Amino acid sequence: MDKKRLLIVDDTLPNLQLLGNILKDLYSLSFASGGQEALDMLEKSNPDMILLDIMMPSIDGFEVCRRIRKNPVTKSIPIIFLSAKNDKESVVKGMSLGAQDYLVKPFSSEDVLSRIRNQFQIIPSDQVLSTGREDSKSSWVFINNRIDNLAVCHASYKSDLANQIQSIESELDPLVSVIPGLLNYIHDLEELMGSGSILKLKDIQDKLNEAQKNRLNPDVTAAVHTLHDNLQDLQYKLIDIITEITPQEEAYDKKEQLSLKALFDDLKNLIPDEITIQWLIKGDINLPNRYKSLKQALLSLLDNALDAIQEDFEHHTCSIRISILENHLIISILDSGPGISEKVIKQIFKFGFSSKPGRQGSGLTAAHLLIKEHFKGKIDAVSGTKGTMIINIPMI
User: Fold this and answer.
1) Distance CA 18, CA 112 (A)
2) C-beta of residue 105 within 8 angstroms of C-beta of residue 44
3) In this predicted model, which residue has the larger pLDDT, 388 or 285?
4) For the chain, which end, N or C, has fewer CB atoms within 10 Å of the first or last residue's CB respectively?
5) Which residues of 232-258 are buried (b: 16+ CB within 10 A; e: fewer)?
6) Is the pLDDT of residue 69 over 80?
7) Average pLDDT of the residues in 145-166
8) Cβ(393)–Cβ(176) below 8 Å
């Protein structure tokens, strides 16, 4: 079988050499040291994938990507950005221009290989990519939201890690606190042994002398001192790590209320017009003001629903239904896609899970975390022939 052909574009020679060493045994490689050189090479032959740096003189990676997507001959070539630019705006811009992935430098060889492998599994090289969901009017909204979802999942992971380290630190505390008492005990015994006049009975004197030789020698005492110092240093380091990785919760006014109607008015302007909103309650509802959190969760569920129907509104529908049931706010996201199986439901909120091969999911995980942590609610996925996600928030 012929090797897949990769074009690697980077203006830094060490980066080209690094990627060449990682990929040379698996793929047929060609290299370009700048944007214009890459575009010139594409005029002669098309690779199966392009690994594209962003920060290059003259023509940067964003412009190269834009021109590739405008050219009918090259528009279907998968592009993975490889860049030291890790700010949200750069990632959003890169993905909105039609890139399939964005990998931040420095990266490991495993990262590069897995990203390339995933793209070849997802996208046949002759498939036209410009007709995907990224062409819709709401693409920027959903791309931004996906990045926010990754941040939520990452913060949750850091919080869990901080809790685990806190547990270890707490278990160290009794051990650290008992050692000073042990050292005092050793010190008292050593002083006792140095004062023979205090002890009148020879057999007691002999036994204590033996204890001093076997257990209270200077090496043991020094070792206990060292153990105490090391454990205390470890405890301080763990506390520093816990402080550093514990996510800082975004400040908000707990007294201020969120108008649900205002949120959905805002949402209407961000999502495709074909999504219908059914308001089945009287008047408005006020919730604790976590506006951004609820909006992010709703966009994540809508993103999932639109993905299920491939935003094909000629043959499918997508809707939101808002109602009240037994003092609970119920928001249902409905789509006429293939539905959700029982097998998928069991792992649908797990970070990284996707029912589509080669994909890594984070949106449903983030939505689940946001509703649970900020509204004390839950999200249920309903199995069946159509897609149904239900947000349940207690109004207490």
Assistant:
1) 11
2) no
3) 388
4) N
5) eeebeebeeebeeebeeeeeeeeeeeb
6) yes
7) 77
8) no
How far apart are the C-alpha atoms of 72 and 124, rounded to whole Å?
Answer: 16
Burial readout 28-48 (b: 16 or more C-beta within 10 A, e: otherwise): ebebbbbbebbbebbeeebbb
Rounded Cα–Cα distance for residues 164 and 168 (Å): 7
| pLDDT bracket for residue 135 (50, 70, 90) | very low
Alpha carbon distance 214, 186 (integer Å): 13
Please state the length of the chain: 396
Q: Which long-range contacts link 227-234 to residues 24+ away (Cβ below 8 Å)? A: 227/179, 228/176, 228/179, 228/180, 228/183, 231/172, 231/175, 231/176, 231/179, 232/176, 234/172
Global pTM value: 0.55
Going by the DSSP 8-state scheme, the letter that residue 340 receives in this structure is B
CA 189 to chain centre: 56
Please state the separation of Cα 130 from the chain's center in Å. 27
> Are the beta carbons of 278 and 293 closer than 8 angstroms?
no
- Banded pLDDT at 322 (limits 50, 70, 90): very high
Total Cβ atoms within 10 A of residue 96: 15
Q: How far is CA 56 from CA 9, 10, 98, 250, in A?
A: 9, 7, 19, 36
Kind and range of the H or E run holding 373? helix 363-375
- Predicted local distance difference test score (pLDDT) of residue 9: 95
